[in-house]
Design a protein that fits this description.
Layout: E1 3-6, H1 13-24, H2 35-45, E2 52-55, H3 62-68, E3 74-78, H4 81-90, E4 98-101, E5 114-120, H5 122-126, H6 132-148, E6 149-159, H7 163-176, E7 180-184, H8 187-190, E8 202-207, E9 219-222, E10 229-232, H9 235-256, E11 267-272, E12 280-286, E13 293-299, H10 308-311, H11 313-322, E14 325-333, H12 342-354, E15 369-371, E16 380-388, E17 392-401, E18 404-411, E19 418-428, E20 434-438, H13 446-453, E21 463-468, H14 474-482, E22 486-492, H15 495-504, E23 513-517, H16 520-526, E24 531-536, E25 547-549, H17 557-565, E26 567-579, H18 582-595, E27 598-604, E28 609-615, H19 625-643, H20 653-659
Parallel strand pairs: 2-3, 2-5, 3-4, 5-6, 7-9, 13-14, 13-15, 21-22, 21-24, 22-23, 24-26
Antiparallel strand pairs: 1-11, 6-8, 7-8, 9-10, 11-12, 12-14, 16-17, 17-18, 18-19, 19-20, 25-26, 26-28, 27-28
Length: about 650
């Protein structure tokens, strides 16, 4: 099966092409390949007897090179008088070569004059931006090319295919009813050192057809000049696949230079030629220390790609250390694909994995394929899919990790992040058959256990808890089941979440658990109720600021004051924070300290979460809050053991006390 690369957001298109134009300077010709590198493709699509027109010839030797191997009917045009005189003088020994001053957007040739229109870099030179004047110029050039080409004639263009260029080319020729084929010219790369192979060269072949009603577009891609052609269904698929080729090239070149930390943030995606869904997501990580293993691939079993060890750059670095490997390729398996065995995955991926090998890899090196599941590829059982008007497409699926089973809610806009998770246990149904149900007495997330630990300060009396952010409902369900003196109110912006929590995660409302569908910020402004504990557990849809949780509006000084106004005098604010921006975090701590007398945090490295506790309770003075929380966590452990009849602690006190700095 052939695999196509697919673009990924971690690559910045502007940076990619800025690098090209800095490196190119004024000498663009060399980037498009010499004749001996391009001829393998050109000879397939140009016959020696074909009348050929080269547009924007510049000082390229391409026409002369074709002439010298037997192509005689070639005309070349350019808008520069100087270039035309220069090329005419240089080619006096080639009497049949014609060089004429002419604008490719206003040609004077008759209709149906040529079998081939050849373009080496001219499209790229003219199509410098996407403003209206530029696109009109390119439209005129394509219209002129269509006019002078005979039916069945070919427009052959050598290009680096910037994103706006490939989109315009695909849309224009597909709309015109022309078959379009794009070939990767690998030979043009091979003359450059590996670290300079950043910008792959492509050859576009568009064939003039009469447009027919209801004709399906013919769109093909070849990843090499000799390789199998793959038929794609739509122009956007071609754009994505070309962009993926460019990303692979950029990453390989970066690796050849020695790599840097940014490679650990990059993700390259592959999809099968007959599918637009991602089949494999590939991550890289390296270690600087001397390693027993030079290069290896690690296959993450299905359903486990959301775990910290596999989902984060830091976790993958730790995985690389554990494997004692110099460079490790970590592979996630797509949820819309079927995988039979590790061996099948290995056979399909081997050639792609080698693209990321270290430069000092010995000849004949056999890449080890490692996995957390041995020969088991893991499994997912999809329960449902849907679309939230606020959060987009989602999937709820059951996965097995070792002997344990979990139910997970995943938003497909962030497929490597678990939105909500619950433990599944076996239960007999009315027909005495085993079925998996959510265990509301078990919490999966460590950060949830710490948030609940704050309730240890309120166990002597009834407690009112406000939870902002429902998710799958695990947090309020656990509090309701385990703390019978609690009354919980949940505020959730997205009505879809209430449906998912109720239908898939066993969440139920009653006199002690109520829900309001409303923006949490507005709720703080409008409510007159007071709460013992306010737990804020809301993710941000925009993580560009480095803040994944909560959305920035919730930690603005105005909102923090509104939250404080909703607390009882001895109440506590508990915040689930995920922030990669140290400056932003420092400012938040300052803002919290302006509102509450005592603030402390507990950082969970392996879940990238940080739980912040804030209170103005005079009994929890600034220097006593950590000790008071540690005591509260201990009381919660004792309470939970009695409530759910277990011998296990909810909170790992020894680890948590270290996290609190005690």
């Amino acid at each position: 099966m052939n695999l196509l690369p697919r673009e990924h957001q971690e690559f910045r298109q502007k940076e990619y092409w800025d690098t090209f134009f800095r490196k190119r300077g004024k000498a663009a010709f060399e980037w498009y390949g010499e004749y001996h590198e391009l001829c393998g493709i050109l000879h397939k699509y140009i016959k020696p007897a074909d009348p050929v027109l080269q547009v924007g010839c510049g000082n390229s030797t391409l026409a002369a090179d074709l002439y010298d191997v037997g192509y005689r009917s070639i005309k070349s045009i350019d808008v520069s008088d100087v270039v035309i005189r220069q090329m005419t003088n240089q080619n006096k020994g080639r009497p049949d070569l014609v060089f004429e001053k002419m604008d490719a957007t206003q040609m004077t040739y008759k209709e149906n004059s040529f079998n081939v229109v050849l373009d080496k870099g001219t499209l790229d030179a003219l199509f410098t931006d996407e403003n209206e004047e530029t696109t009109e110029k390119i439209d005129k050039m394509f219209s002129e090319i269509a006019r002078v080409l005979r039916l069945g004639g070919r427009y052959i263009c050598v290009s680096l295919l910037q994103p706006h260029i490939i989109r315009f080319v695909a849309d224009w020729f597909v709309s015109a009813g022309w078959p379009i084929r794009i070939l990767r010219c690998v030979e043009a790369d091979q003359s450059k050192p590996p670290q300079e192979r950043i910008f792959p060269v492509f050859v576009i072949v568009c064939t003039k057809f009469k447009k027919m009603a209801d004709m399906k577009p013919v769109i093909e891609l070849g990843l090499t000049s000799e390789g199998q052609l793959m038929r794609l269904q739509k122009a956007e698929s071609l754009v994505e696949s070309v962009r993926g080729c460019q990303q692979f090239a950029a990453l390989r070149a970066r690796l050849a230079k020695g790599g840097d930390q940014s490679i650990e943030e990059a993700c390259l995606q592959l999809h099968a030629e007959d599918s637009q869904s991602v089949k494999y997501s590939i991550f890289l990580t390296e270690r600087k220390q001397i390693s027993s293993l030079l290069f290896a691939a690690f296959i993450v079993p299905q359903g486990r790609e959301v775990e910290w060890m596999f989902a984060t750059a830091e976790g993958r670095r730790q995985l690389c250390d554990s494997a004692n490997c110099k460079r490790l390729v970590v592979v996630h398996l797509g949820r819309d694909s079927t995988f039979k065995s590790i061996e099948e995955i290995q056979n399909e991926l081997s050639s792609h994995i080698l693209d990321f090998s270290p430069p000092d890899l010995p000849p004949g090196y056999k890449v080890p394929f490692l996995s957390a599941g041995g020969e088991n590829v893991g499994s997912r059982t999809e329960r449902c899919r849907g679309r939230s008007q606020i959060s987009g497409d989602y999937v709820v699926e059951d996965v097995q990790v070792g002997a344990s089973f979990y139910r997970r809610l995943i938003f497909l806009s962030r497929p490597n992040l678990t939105q909500s998770e619950a433990v599944l246990v076996s239960k007999k149904d009315k027909n005495k058959k085993d079925k998996k149900v959510v265990d509301v007495t078990d919490l999966v997330s460590t950060y949830h256990t710490l948030m609940i630990g704050s309730l240890g300060l309120f166990l002597s009396r009834p407690v009112t808890v406000l939870v902002v952010g429902l998710g799958g409902g695990s947090l309020p369900s656990y509090i309701h089941r385990t703390f019978p003196l609690s009354n919980i109110h949940v505020v959730e912006l997205d009505p879809s979440m209430l449906d998912i929590a109720s239908q898939q995660f066993g969440f139920k409302t009653d006199s002690r658990v109520t829900v309001t569908i409303k923006d949490g910020v507005d709720f703080f402004k409008d409510t007159d109720n007071k709460f013992s504990v306010i737990m804020l557990d809301v993710d941000s849809k925009d993580i560009s600021s480095g803040l994944s949780c909560p959305p920035p509006v919730f930690i603005s000084p105005t909102c923090l004051k509104g939250i404080a106004a909703c607390l009882e005098p001895d109440g506590m604010f508990v915040l689930n924070l995920v922030c990669r921006d140290t400056v932003l975090r420092a400012q938040l701590v300052q803002d919290l300290a302006q509102v509450w007398d005592s603030v402390c945090s507990c950082k969970l490295e392996e879940e990238v979460n940080e739980i912040i506790f804030a209170t103005s309770n005079p009994a929890l003075a600034k220097d006593q809050i950590k000790k008071s929380l540690a005591g509260g966590f201990k009381l919660v452990n004792e309470h939970v053991k009695k409530a759910v009849k277990t011998k296990d602690d909810l909170i790992d006190l020894e680890t948590t006390i270290k996290r609190l700095g005690l």
